[in-house]
Every structure is written in C-alpha cells, then in structure tokens.
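Sample pair:
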Amino acid sequence: MSSFEGKVIAITGGASGIGLAIAKTLHQRGAKVSIADANSAALENVAQAIGTDDIVAVQCDVRQMKEVEAWLQRTVDGWGKLDGAANMAGISSPMPGKGSMEEATEEEWGMTIAVNLTGVMHWAV
C-alpha cells in the first residue's frame, strides 16, 4: 500500500458512496483530506465519524464555479498546498427513489447535466 503521508487531497462528493470510500482510504494512508459535498448533514456525519484535524468537510455545490473556487482556496490556505484531487460528485436523474430515467423531468435532467458535466468543468478549470 502506498503512503499518502503529508499529501493534501480534495474530493468532491466525499460525503457518501465512492467519494467517501476514497476519503477514508486516503485518510487511513496519511493524507489530509478536504471533502466537498452538497449534502451538509452527510458532511457533518463524515467529519464526526472520522473526527480528526486532517479532515475538512465543506458544503459546496459543484454547479457553482465560485463555490468550487472558494472551497479549493480554503483547502490551499489551510494546508498550504493541494497534491491531488478526485471528482466523485455525481447524481442520477431522477433523484434516487423517484422513478426511472424515462420519468425524469427536463429540470431533473438539467440538474444531472449541471452536476455531472458542468461540475467537472468547474473542477478542472
């Protein structure tokens, strides 16, 4: 297993699913992890569960460029650098538990594109 000791990693969608698994694994390997997610309640649970100074959990809507920039700047300001990143934020349309893709409204589809595509662009810029 490789060590991430002293590395600073930023992760979108880090409050659940694959993003959370990546955050936990990197933290166990010594990384300082900055997690962004739109779900503030889930973020609070993650921060409490891991309970360390090496985790920062920030509510951030990846559809909003200014929020992504502010979160990444906060990460760099706090730890002096950013060594890596994982863009794990993503949603399906319609929202989980609300039916099939064929039942998605135009608004739900637009939100899916905004998170899954535009959010990646905001992250990469």
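The CA atoms of residues 14 and 20 lie 4 Å apart.
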